[in-house]
Please model this.
Amino acid sequence: MSRCSLLPILAAVLLAASLPPRAAAMVDSLLPASATALSFEEGYTQLFGDSNLMLHGDGKRVHISLDERTGAGFASQGAYHHGFFSASIKLPSDHTAGVVVAFYMSNGDVYERTHDELDFEFLGNVRGREWRVQTNVYGNGSTAAGREERYGLWFDPTQDFHRYAIRWSHDTIIFYVDETPIREVVRTAFMGAQFPSKPMSLYATIWDGSSWATSGGRYKVNYKYAPYVAEFTDLLLHGCPAGSAPPCERGGAAAATMSTGQRSAMEKFRARHMTYGYCYDRVRYPAPLPECRVGAEAEAFLPSGEARSTDRRGSRHGKRHRRAGDGVDSAF
Ligand SMILES: *[C@@H]1O[C@H](CO)[C@@H](O)[C@H](O)[C@H]1NC(C)=O
Model:
């Protein structure tokens, strides 16, 4: 083996050896070997919330909280054109109705009318009911066409840190929870400009979503239970800085592909845990958007796009209270 081909392997081994076991597993399965976590000062800047953003552990852990005064948020210092972005997040526990924690990419501050956005939104719940996770995609200001999906989780996201990741390349976007891909968005001819294509920054926020987050706004934030604290760590920005050369910018052909095993894990997750899908929402979209490939699995969903089965985690505790035609929760 030539010295040339050995070096990257050696670097990967050294990096893996210096990371905790779970992160090392991530290096194998998801991450480019050169990805490293940044401290807050190295990569981020506070957006709002003054003392409701607190740094711990040499700036490697960030707590953002919501109380009656304010929420809080931070963003990456730079903008990126494609890449892998992730954080390990532990959500506030107990009664969290109306609370929204968002981990997302956006360029809304730069392109007011033609912005792109990729979202993880965590929607709080009343005591005893699970948080739900929503993902969404906007491209070139396509805010009239929501592409929301919601899911329950197979674990309690308030008990431990779990990694939430977005992999974005020129042709494909993959959302992950830990090592499981949960959603793949492929650029199609129709999506064209509605596929995010301009450099974006990474954001993390916590805020009051009383008007929509829990059962369509029925349950509001109760500040008796404040502060609501969301903890972030392992903040990974592995992207092409905006303006870098094309080979990086395109993300590489292999950047956002999935193995057969990953794909079957994704299908399994979606069959068990998806509680809403825009592709099944016949109230909002009488004809599914062209990128939707709706098959026999559609029978598991009501015309509102909500899953029929209340067995799916995140929806089993009771009936929904949203009126048909409410439209879909939209946050930004
Ligand atoms: C994005 O939207 C703007 C304004 O609607 C439009 O002029 C532009 O052509 C769109 N970009 C692409 C790549 O289609």
The radius of gyration is 19 Å. The first strand starts at residue 44 and ends at 48. The longest helix spans residues 3-17.
